[in-house]
Amino acid sequence: MPTIRRIFPLIALCISLLSCSRASANTFTNPIAAGADPWVVRHNGYYYWCLSQNGSGVAICKSDTLTSLGKRHVVWHAPGTGPYSKEIWAPELHFLDGRWYIYVAADDGDNANHRMITLESATDDPLSAYTFKAELYTGDNIAKKTKNRWAIDGTILTHRDKRYFIWSGWRSGGDDQSLYVAPMSDPWTVSGNRVRICKNDTYLWEYVGESPRNNGLNEGPQVLQHGGRTFLIYSASGSWQPSYKLGLLELIGDDPLKPGAWRKHPKPVFSPTDKTFGVGHGSFTTSPDGTQFWHVYHAKRERANGWSRAIFAQPFTWTADGLPDFGIPVAPGQPV
Question: Catalytic amino acids?
Answer without folding.
Answer: 37, 219
